[in-house]
From TrEMBL:
Pfam families: Fucose_pyrophosphorylase
Keywords: Nucleotide-binding, Transferase
Protein name (database record): GDP-fucose pyrophosphorylase domain-containing protein
Source organism (scientific name): Ilyodon furcidens
InterPro entries xrefs: Fucose-1-phosphate_GuaTrfase, GDP_fucose_pyrophosphorylase, Trimer_LpxA-like_sf
Highest classification ranks of the organism: Eukaryota, Metazoa, Chordata, Craniata, Vertebrata
């Protein structure tokens, strides 16, 4: 990316944040902001969590006032995907607003899910992950609102759909605007390497050869490809050749990939009618792959039978996809090409660490700080990120680590590339490099208790085996689980798994001790982790209950977790200099 383009992108991003800061805690004017900001949740528990936290944010004047903030949960039962969540959100919006819905500009943020790849966001939700900027400190919700701050005034009534864990930065000429005023769908598109296209949606556009690319232009989309192979991109005519300098990449060939999109009210209404026709959903629908692949003059029905990217194939999936195809076929797909733009995803532990501590371009574009809303940060800290925490001045945090919502006492050290989230770390403790440690407050036997889960940053919590007989295939911090159990003086047969007995994973393995205090919870889990790394033994006291990460979410004590956050908030506000 040329220095000029990079500078423009940074300036444009900072300006959006400045506008958002002016809206925070203020009653917005008609047409100035979204009429409704809707957030999806995976179940009733997550919905309650989001509603409580958003209500507190409004009370603290961290969000624009005057808009309606709604949270909609998926119905109980099988997973329905973000496409199913979109349909059910439309249904609930229609129930609330009725005919008035046709006059509203709605932002729909998909935030449902358990964040298994970033467990620190599992309990309180990925849309409320902290970010090191702003006063009060931003969470992902504010950043999403900031990046789209110019859209509502340029939008006809309809639905703007986005996801909670990605960020789109863009710059356009000062005299131009990104407008959402055409019928059908209007999608944002970003020039991306072909490799990125294999994991995203790719637009096949009606573009002619040209020698230069403006920062923004509109195009008609012939068809939409969902996670295509590079050969498929080439065969479909999706690959473009770079000739101008307005790009955030050096590749000579590129494709335009998706991020967010708008649908006008008439299109949203037709999808709502489809849900009424289908009745309760029993399969996963993709808001991108299943909606957008039906669009464009070159769209064909073939994709409806392709289940390669489906996590769980249900017999009704193809039939429902075909109904969506025939419903949407012929609907326009307009694409806005943002040629000076970047797309960032922050949905995994490695992405979270990289973007907040190492990615200098990202940090510069957003103006991220190394320390935000924190007491007693040592000036010698560099290359780390500390948010909403209280530290003793003698603490040591190595580069590449993130500390959030935590208290660190005297002499605590944290190795590089680690995440410490919602923990109270006692004096003198040392956290190894590459560790993920997160304390949750849970209700156990009618008592308020604490569990600190620990994993390696690169551990795969989703990988599962069919039975405990295959524990060697599950790796914790690079060691197979059988070996880990031996360091904790536990027999394989003693290890229990929560939930589905035919799916054994780090996510549902009951490994983590339940303790009566936040500090003792962290200390006990740290000893277990150090036993693995040092080759010695450390077992929880006899009779100690053990929970899985899955258990912790089922039994989380939301009220107590938010109370602990409020306590930290008050201590930081008062400038408390000791723990």
């Amino acid at each position: 990316m040329s220095q000029g383009c990079s500078r423009k992108l940074k300036t444009a991003t900072r300006e959006k944040i400045r506008k958002m800061n002016l809206l925070r805690g203020r009653e917005v004017l008609p047409g100035e902001f979204w009429d409704v900001v809707a957030v999806t949740a995976v179940d009733g528990s997550q919905r309650d969590s989001y509603e409580r936290q958003i209500r507190e944010k409004i009370e603290r004047k961290e969000l624009p006032l005057g808009a309606q903030y709604k949270v909609f949960s998926d119905p109980p039962g099988c997973k329905i995907g973000n496409g199913g969540s979109t349909l059910y959100a439309l249904q609930q919006l229609n129930d609330i607003y009725g005919k008035a819905l046709s006059n509203l500009r709605i932002l729909l943020i998909h935030a449902g899910g358990f964040s298994q790849r970033l467990p620190s966001a599992s309990a309180l939700g990925k849309i409320l992950m902290p970010l090191p900027l702003g006063d009060p400190i931003y969470q992902m919700l504010e950043l999403k609102l900031a990046m789209y701050v110019d859209f509502p005034s340029q939008m006809k009534p309809g639905l703007f759909v986005t996801c909670a864990d990605d960020i789109e930065l863009y710059n356009i000429p000062e005299e131009e605007r990104v407008s959402f005023d055409k019928p059908g769908f209007t999608a944002l598109a970003h020039p991306s390497p072909l490799s990125m296209g294999t994991t995203h949606g790719v637009f096949v556009l009606d573009l002619h050869e040209r020698s230069s690319f403006p920062e923004m232009e509109s195009a008609s989309c012939l068809s939409f490809l969902h996670k295509p192979s590079i050969d498929k991109m080439r065969d479909s005519g999706a690959v473009c050749r770079k000739q101008g300098g307005l790009f955030s990449m050096s590749d000579s060939e590129f494709v335009y990939t998706d991020s967010t999109y708008y649908m006008d009210f008439d299109t949203a209404k037709s999808l709502l009618n489809l849900l009424n026709e289908l009745g309760p959903l029993n399969c996963e629908i993709d808001a991108y792959g299943d909606f957008l692949q039906a669009l464009g003059p070159k769209a064909t029905i073939e994709y409806t039978k392709n289940t390669a990217n489906v996590t769980k194939e249900e017999s009704s999936l193809v039939e429902i996809r075909q109904k969506i195809f025939f419903l949407l076929k012929g609907t326009p797909l307009n694409v806005i090409l943002l040629n000076n733009s970047k797309f960032y995803h922050i949905g995994t532990t490695t992405e979270y660490l990289f973007h907040l501590t190492e990615n200098e371009a990202f940090r510069s574009e957003l103006g991220l700080l190394s320390s935000a809303f924190t007491v007693n940060v040592n000036e010698n800290f560099s290359g780390c990120c500390i948010m909403h925490s209280v530290l003793d001045l003698s603490c040591s945090i190595e580069a590449g680590s993130v500390v959030e919502y935590s208290r660190l006492e005297a002499g605590v050290s944290v190795g590089g590339g680690s995440i410490i989230s919602s923990c109270w770390v006692s004096s003198g403790l040392s956290v190894p490099a590459g560790a993920f440690m997160h304390t949750l407050c849970v209700s156990h036997q009618e008592q308020t208790t604490f569990v600190t889960v620990f994993f390696g940053i690169k551990d795969n919590l989703k990988k599962s085996v069919a039975s405990p007989a295959h524990l060697e295939e599950l790796l914790l911090f690079g060691f197979n689980l059988t070996k880990c159990l031996s360091h904790w003086e536990m027999e394989n047969e003693c290890l229990k798994f929560s939930g589905d007995a035919s799916s054994c994973s780090l996510w549902n393995a009951r490994l983590f001790p339940v303790c009566s205090e936040q500090q003792s919870s962290f200390s006990m889990s740290l000893r277990m982790l150090q036993a693995i790394l040092n080759g010695n033994t450390s077992s929880p006291p006899r009779g100690t209950a053990l929970m899985s990460m899955q258990d912790c979410l089922r039994h989380k004590n939301l009220e107590e977790m938010l109370k602990l956050k409020r306590g930290l908030h008050d201590d930081i506000k008062q400038g408390k200099h000791s723990i």
